[in-house]
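This protein record is not my work; I was only asked to verify it. Take the sequence as given and treat only the tokens as open to question. I have pasted the whole thing underneath without changing anything:
***
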Amino acid sequence: MSDDARRRLTPNRVLATAGVALLVVGGVSWAVVSSRPPAPGGAGATPVAARTPAGADVDPTAPWAERVPPVAGDLVPIDRYAAGHVSITRHGAGGLRIRIDHLDVAWPSVEGPVDVGSVRVLLSDGQVVGDRRGYWAQHSEPVDVGTVEVAPTVVIDVPASTRLPADVRSLVLLRGSEDPETDDRIIGGAALFLTE
């Protein structure tokens, strides 16, 4: 090896070249992995509650409550803490029954946990995405279907006369209080999926 070649091939240059190569390979690997679509039914899958079940003898122009339920989903925290399992089924003549099992909500503050008391329950055409911490992509105005006291199991009967969004994709919980500073703050939500 000539003296010029040895001067050009220093340990620092070897490390720098290896570092650049590692960054390029890592970047390409990340791009390939992040561009893969999510596995069907896995975390991040798109809710299908808006679709009419395949093979169903249902008018596709009928209201959502008549053509889609039963649906279900798990509550995830959005701005505060919410957990539980949501199920929505047909009930009565064109109505719905919303059941939230194992409901748990929390409103942490600097002074310590705050008693939430009651929550407002909304049905929305926006999606809730995420599995540990969610985000609600609100599209149009959601429909308030009731305010309930927090309990382990909550049941709400929604009459057929309630005007719902054309496609309900999520259930969202808001804090219901008399304090304008905390009222209407999003606690959590659930993406709704077909169960049949």
Q: What stands out?
A: The chain has three helices and twelve strands. The longest strand covers residues 95-106.
